[in-house]
Specification:
By secondary structure, the protein is α+β, with helices and mostly antiparallel strands. The chain has 3 helices and 3 strands; from the N terminus they run βαββαα. It has helices at residues 16-29, 50-53, 76-82, and strands at residues 2-6, 38-43, 46-49.
Amino acid sequence: MILAHNHPRGSQNFSPEDKALTQRIVDIFYPLEIKVMDHIIVGGSSYSSMAERGNIPHQCKCTANYEVIALGAIPAKEKQNRFQDTRSL
């Protein structure tokens, strides 16, 4: 499995939340023998790879947690742009 998402503000750094989410997904899929091969962040016109940095967790840290994953608050400006129609008229 390869995880990927973008950082709308252009940062290619892995946040503590990105790292925790990656570990949690490893914990969930480890018993099923499904490996997380990479977690990629796209920021601006570039990307960052956990695997290339040697930071991808390969071992289960704890029992899988199936609780809802709470994400941080989304800034108002980002919410506004989220559903903006960008097609040309």
